[in-house]
Design goal:
Blueprint: E1 2-7, H1 13-24, E2 29-34, H2 37-43, H3 50-55, E3 58-61, H4 64-73, E4 80-83, H5 95-105
Parallel strand pairs: 1-2, 1-3, 3-4
């Protein structure tokens, strides 16, 4: 399965999810990206584009406003999309963030 994680700047939450799950589930493919293109450019991270949406089979966003951004700016088609409701208050690869990801994601794939 091809799984795309999305947050605002692709610095902490979605990048943690991509890196953590890439190690845990080697039979799946993972990507991550951010919806705020200016922040992604500033941090030199991956900004979300239509190619990422087209590539994915499952899209997992951190907050509801990420889903809304995708709907307004890209063509979602009939992709599965899940909102985790994980706010932007965790550092990259923090144990609390990983615990939240496991609680909310493990049942999805």
């Amino acid at each position: 399965m091809k799984i795309l994680f999305v947050c605002t700047a692709n610095v902490d939450r979605s990048k943690t999810a991509q890196d953590f799950y890439s190690e845990q589930f080697i039979n799946h493919q993972f990507r991550s990206a951010g919806t705020d293109h200016a922040l992604c450019q500033r941090h030199m991270t991956k900004a979300l584009d239509q190619e990422d949406i087209d590539w994915s089979e499952l899209i997992i966003v951190m907050e509801r406003h990420h889903k809304e951004w995708i709907i307004q700016n890209l063509e979602l088609k009939d992709k599965q999309l899940h909102v985790l409701e994980i706010v932007d208050s965790y550092a990259y690869y923090s144990m609390k963030l990983i615990e939240l990801l496991q609680q909310k994601c493990n049942k999805l794939f």
